[in-house]
Amino acid sequence: xxxxxxxxxxxxxxxxxxxxxxxxxxxxxxxxxxxxxxxxxxxxxxxxxxxxxxxxxxxxxxxxxxxxxxxxxxxxxxxxxxxxxxxxxxxxxxxxxxxxxxxxxxxxxxxxxxxxxxxxxxxxxxxxxxxxxxxxxxxxxxxxxxxxxxxxxxxxxxxxxxxxxxxxxxxxxxxxxxxxxxxxxxxxxxxxxxxxxxxxxxxxxxxxxxxxxxxxxxxxxxxxxxxxxxxxxxxxxxxxxxxxxxxxxxxxxxxxxxxxxxxxxxxxxxxxxxxxxxxxxxxxxxxxxxxxxxxxxxxxxxxxxxxxxxxxxxxxxxxxxxxxxxxxxxxxxxxxxxxxxxxxxxxxxxxxxxxxxxxxxxxxxxxxxxxxxxxxxxxxxxxxxxxxxxxxxxxxxxxxxxxxxxxxxxxxxxxxxxxxxxxxxxxxxxxxxxxxxxxxxxxxxxxxxxxxxxxxxxxxxxxxxxxxxxxxxxxxxxxxxxxxxxxxxxxxxxxxxxxxxxxxxxxxxxxxxxxxxxx
Length: 519
What we know:
Helix 13 (224-230) runs antiparallel to helix 14. 40% of the residues are buried. Helices cover 72% and strands 0% of the residues. It has 31 helices and no strands.
């Protein structure tokens, strides 16, 4: 009787508890919490693990089903949960999420669902997923095996590197060795150096290349000799070029780490190569070397291959500025035209006002290409003192050289350059005056307005018209009375139209109607 009464009380209490607790949450409610769309209930780690596992269990039939629309919806739901669980500061949720997926990483899990979960573990998985992934590295299904390899490659746990190294030592299939070597290289796993060095000397070309490239990715100088040996083993040209690239890639890596002496020795070995290998070596001289490398870089500047010449210029830009300036200026004195053009371009990019005499001297060179390069350099480096030289060149120049002069003068900033242009008006012939007026307009040289007002009465019609056109751009209200006088005094139709346009342009800039109309 007492037992029956006790059982009855227990059932009553249980019923009361269920009534107070309410119905268990639906899948939608659980998903809303796990994706951050609803506040998360207070849960222990065990509760979190159970909740993620329950929700994934409810989604699994759709993740593995043949209904593609339902599968896609289930995938999007679980991906949203994974991304929310992987947010910073939510390690308990991330662990629970990963553990829920790890429990289903089994050979008998339907393939679509298994492959999908492996992709999600790339984001969420850490050390808790390594053992299950290690098991899948031996799966019969090649795609599952490959997906597990990639997931381990991207797993930040050191245990994942251990698994990949053990798998590489056991591997017998060449393609699988290549894949595992690539994974270890991508991880930058220095613990795999010995194993990868062995691969880099393999007679199998694919394995040899994979080993060399993985070693280059890791970037440890201890791998230099192994990759160097890889370049000496007989094989196809493609593999030879690829292992050479790996060797130079390693040089780039150790140079970036500050081991410039070793890197410099590696780059020098390929200075006599051709094509992209020589380009990489030449640029490497700039990365790792100093002034002592300039002669070798100058030699590359004279190469027939334009890409090698471009690499040499890039190398010079990496070297100390002062050393380059001095060497280039000295070499420019005796260089052939083609070389001189390149040197002037380098000097204009890296030089200063001290190198201006070099450009002034080259501005009268017999070669048009050299003259244009010199003019462009003066535009970049020169100040007002370069303007007279450029104006003198303008009187003789034509075609692209003339355009280069105009552009160079326009590039020189400051009132000093404007004064130099105005001063040149006095001795200029009408044709040059027109050019100078246009230059003042292009410079928006408003301080030249008085000079232009005088030129608006010049005896040469082209000079007058050019001055009036420039005044339409530059003049303000103070110039309007004089402009109106020029309009009234105009002696021909062309002069009247030019003056009229200038007056209208200036009036349009005067807001006060009375001030505008008075002159």
